[in-house]
Specification:
Two copies of one chain form a homodimer. In chain A, helix 6 runs antiparallel to helix 12 and helix 14 runs antiparallel to helix 15. Chain A has four domains: 23-222, Heat Shock Protein 90; 240-311, Helicase, Ruva Protein, domain 3, CATH 1.10.8; 325-467, Ribosomal Protein S5, domain 2, CATH 3.30.230; 506-608, Immunoglobulin-like (Sandwich). By secondary structure, chain A is of the alpha+beta class. The longest helix of chain A has 53 residues, at 446-498. Helix content of chain A is 31%, strand content 27%. Chain A contains 15 helices and 26 strands.
Chain lengths: 612, 612
Amino acid sequence: MTPEAPMQTPAHQLARDHRTISIAEFFEKNRHLLGFDSPTRGIITTVKEAVDNALDACEEVEILPDIFIGVHKLSDGLYKIIVEDNGPGILASHIPFVFGKILYGSRFHQIRQSRGQQGIGISAAVLYAQLTSGQPTQIISRCSYHEPAHEFLLGIDTEANEPNIVSHTEREWERAHGTRIEITLKATFSARKRLIEYLAYSSVVNPHTRITLDLDGEHMVFERTDHEPIKKAESIKPHPHGTELGRLQRMIAHKELPKHMTIHAFLVDQFSKIGIKTADEICIHAQIEKNTPISHLDLATLTALHAAMQQAKIPPPNAQACLSPITEDQIRQGILKEFNPDFASAKARTAIVYAGHPVVVEAALGYGGSLEAEGQAKLLRFANRVPLMYQQGACIITGAISAINWRNYGLSQQGLPLGPILLLVHVASTNVPFTSESKDAIAAVPEIEKEITLAVQELGRELKLFLSRRDKMRQSDERAQAICSFIPDIAQKVAETLERPVPDTSPIEGRILKRVVAKKQYRDGTVYLSVSNYTSTELDISIYCFSSDNLSLASPKPVYCDESDGEYTAVWNLHLACGEKWSAEFLGTGDGTIDLRGTSDEQKVVIDHVSS
Amino acid sequence: MTPEAPMQTPAHQLARDHRTISIAEFFEKNRHLLGFDSPTRGIITTVKEAVDNALDACEEVEILPDIFIGVHKLSDGLYKIIVEDNGPGILASHIPFVFGKILYGSRFHQIRQSRGQQGIGISAAVLYAQLTSGQPTQIISRCSYHEPAHEFLLGIDTEANEPNIVSHTEREWERAHGTRIEITLKATFSARKRLIEYLAYSSVVNPHTRITLDLDGEHMVFERTDHEPIKKAESIKPHPHGTELGRLQRMIAHKELPKHMTIHAFLVDQFSKIGIKTADEICIHAQIEKNTPISHLDLATLTALHAAMQQAKIPPPNAQACLSPITEDQIRQGILKEFNPDFASAKARTAIVYAGHPVVVEAALGYGGSLEAEGQAKLLRFANRVPLMYQQGACIITGAISAINWRNYGLSQQGLPLGPILLLVHVASTNVPFTSESKDAIAAVPEIEKEITLAVQELGRELKLFLSRRDKMRQSDERAQAICSFIPDIAQKVAETLERPVPDTSPIEGRILKRVVAKKQYRDGTVYLSVSNYTSTELDISIYCFSSDNLSLASPKPVYCDESDGEYTAVWNLHLACGEKWSAEFLGTGDGTIDLRGTSDEQKVVIDHVSS
C-alpha cells in the first residue's frame, strides 16, 4: 500500500477494515457450501471425500481399490472416521498440502474425468474436524516397500490457508503402499442408512472396488464384481470451442511458450482437434498471417482469431480418451444385482460437448421385482462415478426426468414417475457443473439436460414395450388357462364315452401354457420322474427330489445325492432343448416332494401324482 | 518441500502435477457458482454486485444513495455496464484489491448485516469481463473535494489472484465523492424485464435510494420514497452459543490478546452478552479457576470451557444493533405503491438465533387489485435488503411457503398458493446461509424455515379474515341491491294510489347501499348539483362537471374552471362528514356529464336526471 494523503475522509475510516480473506476462512464460515452444513452430514461428507480421493488415486495407477472405512463413536457427539486405501500413497513432502491447504491438488488443471477436481474436499474435512473437535487429523501414507511410511498429525492455519504440522514421524506400516486418514469430528450419526446406501451405490458404479465398513464393530463388505481396473482417463488439451477470449490471451502469454512461436504452430500445438488444415483456415478467416509470432498479437487481432476459432468446423474432443463412462452392460448388471427388477435396460449416449467439455450421459431404468410398488420412482444420481446423495430437488437430473411426460409410457407421475421404478443417471464429464462446492447437484446446463431427457425417453419407450408385451403375455396366459380348465373335463367325458381310463392331460396343459413340466408318477414299485421343456428357449435347470426312497440308486444317477436321518436329497442337472423331455426312475414308494430350480415360478409346472 | 528419496514410485509421478490452485482460477472455472453461468445472467449479476457495493458503502456513512446504471450495447454480444454512486469513494491504494482480488473486503470479519460480505462479487465481475471480452475494467473513485479522483484500468492476474493494474492516473471528476465502474463483457441481453424487476424490487426494500437507469438511451428512474438514510448496522462480538471449539482455540491464541489475560476477562471482553456473573458461572461449570491465564489452557480444559459456554443461559445477541430490517410499515407501503392490492399486510418476527447469528424474518402478503388473478402467487424473496432473482425452487423461502396448507386460509395451491396473491419474504441476518456464492437462494436452515412459516401463517390468517369480511360485505351488498330493485316500483304504486308525482327514490337507495350519491337535476333554467355522503366515513372528494353551460358563474364557485371550444370543465373539492350533503346551482340547460373523483367506483352512485 502506498501512503495516503493525511486527510481523514469517511473512505479512510472504511479502509481500515479492508483485508484479504483466506479461502480457509471463507469456507470455515460458509462450510455448508462444502456439505458440512449439519452434524448429521459431517460423517458422510468426510467419508465421501476420502473415498473419492482413494478411488481417484487407485485409478491413476490402475490398481484394484481396496478401501477400509471405520466409523467409531468416541463420546456423545464425537466420532472418529478412518479411511484407508491400497493406493499409490502420497509423497511425505506433499501430505501437509494435500490435507492441510484448501485448493491444492493435481487434477484442477487437467482436462479429464475424475471424482475430485478442486483440491477442496479432504482439506475441508480436516478444517471441519479442527473447528468442531479442536483436534488435528492423523495421516499415514507409504509409497513403496522400499521406503518407510510417514505419519503426520496436522491441522490448517485458517487465516493463512497453510498446513499446521503438529508432528511428523517415519514409522513401520503393514501396507506396502496406501494412505490412511483418521479424523475426529463432532457429529450426530443419524444417517446410518444413507451412509450404507452411499457405499452400495458407489459399489454399483465402481464394480472394480472392494469396500469394507466397520460401523462401531458391525462389519459389512461391498465386494467387487469386476476384476479389471478402470482404464485411466487421459488428459486432453483444451478444445477451441470452449476456450474464452481471456483464456486465449493467457495461453498466448504463457511463459513456457517460445515468444517466436507462430500463431499457426500455437493453434496446432496447444489445442485439441486443430490440425494443420484447420489452423490454416482459422488464420485465413481471422485475416492473420499464419507465421505471425504469438507475441505480436494485440487484443483486436486476438478477438478476430477467437471469433474465427469459434466459427471453424472442429470435431468434438476425444471423449473416449478423457472420459471413463460405466458402460451400459455394467450399469445393467449393477441394477440387476442390487434391485433384481423384472425389467432392466441401460442406455449410454454418445459424447456431446458443452462449453468445450465433453459429456457422456448414461441412464438405466429398472421396473418391478423388489422395487417399491407405491410412490415415486427411486432415483439414483451419479456424476463421474460418484453417487449424489443430497439436494435431489435442485439437480437437473431430477428436473429433466420430471419434465418428461410419463403418461406417454403408460405411467402416472407426480414430478417423477410413479410405480415400482428405478431410474439411474450418470453424468461423466471433464467438468461436471455442480450447483455448489459440495457437489450434491448438477446445474441446469441445457445441453446436459437434453442428453438426460433423450436417454431416459429411450428407456421409457423400452419400458412401454415391455409393459405391453407383459400385458399381452398375461392375456394369452389367461386364455390358455381358461382352455386348460376344460381339458380334464373333456378327457373325462371322452374316457367315459369310450369306456377307457382317463388319460393324463397335464403334458397337453404344459404344452398350451408353454411351461416346463416336471412330473412324478408311481407304478408297481417304481417311481418315474420326467421333465419336459415346452417353452420356446433352451434351458439349463435342475430337478430336486426329496424322499425316503433310496435315490442314490436312481437311473440315471443324480449328480448329487445325500442321506440324513433316512431322508434322501438328490439333484439332477439338465440341459433341455425346446420340446425335449428327460426322464429317470428308481425303486420305492414315491413319497416326499420334487422341485425345479433354475427357472422362474411362473414358467414351471410341478405335477406330483404320488403325493398329490 | 524437502528433498525426496531418489526412488521413483507411482506416487512420485502423481506428485509432479500437485499445485496450489488460486481462488481466481477456481472461480474462473466454476463461474456458474458466482452467478456467471450464462451470457444472459452476466449483465444482471454485474449490476447486482456493483449496486450491492454502492448501497453498502452509502449505508456505512449514512448517505442517501443516488445510483446511476448504464447498459450499452457495443457490438453484437458485447456490452458495457456502468454503475456510478455518490458513496464515500475508495482509497486509491485499496482500489486494485477491491476490484482485482477475489476474497478481499471489509465486511467478512464483522458480525453485522450487509449485502456484500465475502469480497467476491465485484472482483468476480471483473474476472468474468476479462475472460469473455479480454478487456480490463475502468474504475474512477474520489473520496472528497480536497482530493483528486483516481482512475484505474485493471484486470486480475488469475494464477496469482492479484490485481493486474494496466494504468493509474489522477484526474478531474465532477463528483465530490463516489465510485464509478465501467465494465465490458460478452453477454446477451434478453433479461431486460428481469433487470427492471430487480431494480424495482431493490427500490421497494431500499426506499431511501434513487436509481437511474439508462438502457441504451431509454431512461428510467426509481425514485426514493423515504428521505432518511438507513441507520448503519453496528458490528457485534461473537455470541458464545455460535462459537465452535476450534474458533475458541483460535481466539485464545490470537496474537493481539495479552498472554496473561485471565479466562474470566477473556469471556467478558471477547463475547456478546457475557457479563461478569455469566463468566463466573461458566468458569465454575467448566471447573476452571477464573483467574487462569488464557495461555495456560490445554485442549481438555478448552473443551470443558466450550461445553460450559454452550450450556450457560445467555440472552440472544443484540439484533437491534447489528441488523437493519425493513420494518412492517415500509414493506407495506412498498407493496401498496408497487402492486396496489386490495389487501396488504406485513409482519416482522422478533429476532431469533441460529448458530450464534441473529436472524429477523419479515413477510408481507398482498391480495387482489392489479395482481394477476390466474396461476401461482407472485413470490418476492429478499436477503439483507437484496432481491433474490434466481433459483426460486432451491430456496427455503419457497420451501416453507409451499409446505403451508393454504386451504386453511381459503386458498387452493400448487406448491405456492393460487390466485391474485403477492408474497414477500425478507431474511435479515449477520450471516445469511446462501446455497452458493451467487447468493440466489437461502439454504434449508430449520430455525429460519420456522420463522418464515410462522410469519406467513399469520398473514394467511389475516387474509382469511379479509376474505370472509369481503364475502360478508358482498352478501349484504347483494341483499341491499335486491331491496333497492323494489323501491322504485313501490314508490310508483304509492304515487299512483295517492295520485301524487313519483318521488325521487335514489337518496333512499344511496342510504341503503351506503354510497356517495352525486345528483344533477334541472328545473326552470337552473341546474342543481348535490353530493350526499351516505357512507360510514368522512370523505374528501371532488365533483367534476363537464357542460356547455357557463360553470364559472356557478354558486358556490368551483375551485377550478376552464373553457375550451365552448365546453366548460369545473371542479369542486368537498369535505363531507358522514350523512352530510353538499349542493350547488348554475343557470343553463344541464347538458354534459358529472363525475365523482376520490372515491372508488363501487362506493359512488352518479344520478344524472338531465342527460339520462
